[in-house]
Amino acid sequence: MSGDERRFRSQLAQLVSGRGLIRGSLLVRRRVCGKPTCRCVRGQGHENLYLVVSQDGRSRQLFVPREYEPAVRQWVADYHRAQELMEEISRLYWEKVHRRS
Between the CA of residue 78 and those of 1, 6, 75, what are the distances in Å? Predict the structure, then answer.
């Protein structure tokens, strides 16, 4: 096993066994609450965070409460990093097969 492969596998193992992973993207949406004296009526909407995932060809959105935002942001970032590491490992194995042919 090469040094690169060992490093990628180690990083991937740390991500998978760590905090957690979640597939999706984060979307910030602004909305108006409807109170006539609220600042949102003047164009400064309330910001809400949503987790967006494609399932069965459909886009699904899930509201993320403020207390979950840091964790969900980290889980999404860790998922994307795990994907990058798997691509790097796959690239190394592609090269192994290619060199032997």
Answer: 24, 19, 5
pLDDT per position as a tens digit, 65-87: 999 999 999 999 999 999 999 99
Q: What is the pTM of this model?
A: 0.78
Domain that includes residue 32, residue range: 3-100
H-run or E-run covering 31: strand 25-31
Number of domains in the chain: 1
Residue 69's contacts (CB-CB under 8 Å, 6 or more residues apart) are 49
Coil, strand or helix at 60: strand
Q: Is 19 helix (H, G, I), strand (E, B) or coil?
A: coil
The DSSP output letter for 38 is S
Around 29, how many Cα atoms within 13 Å sit in the side-chain half-sphere? 15
The set of long-range contacts for 92-95, using a CB threshold of 8 Å and a minimum separation of 24, is: 92/2, 92/4, 92/5, 92/8
